[in-house]
Fold this protein.
Amino acid sequence: VYNNIANLTNTSPSELLEGFKSMLIADDDGLSQLANASSTIYQLMTDLNWAGFYLYKHGQLVLGPFQGKPACIRIPLDKGVCGKAAREKHSVRVDDVHLFPGHIACDAASRSELVVPLVKKGALLGVIDLDSPNLARFSSSDQAFVEQLAEQVVELVHWNHLYLG
Ligand code: SME
């Protein structure tokens, strides 16, 4: 399933989830797992211009593996869509980032955004951040799907191989 994940237009969300899990368990190196996870999400969802991870380190979000243009490296928890999702430990979906006070524009093309926190036993590990050049790109079912991906990332990534000090 993983090998086909880039052209899965007729694949159900549950099959996509299975493919995502197969990709994650292929190795136990945390950095490599996150790198392939960012690529897989970028390939399987349409109309994205950025997909990746920010990891929670020293009270801030710090840029992790991603696909898209170079992005800001550090995001304080009181800033941006990512900071809000991290602070509140729940997903934030923004239909028009121009209307979100404090949005951090890493790529001027971004118009809508979905951020899903990664939380393990109540502890914040980081966030998944998805950006789209389209207004209102992310539906509530997209959110539910990415939340399922996030659960697998939390469970299957070898976080102890990443520096999260
Ligand atoms: N837009 C995000 C910052 C990260 S970039 O989109 C990759 C935010 O407002 O938190």
In short: The radius of gyration is 15 Å. Residues 1-7 have pLDDT under 50 and may be disordered. The CA atoms of residues 18 and 133 lie 28 Å apart. The pocket of methionine sulfoxide is lined by residues 50, 71, 75, 80-82, 103-104, 106, 110, 113, 129, 131 (CB under 6 Å).
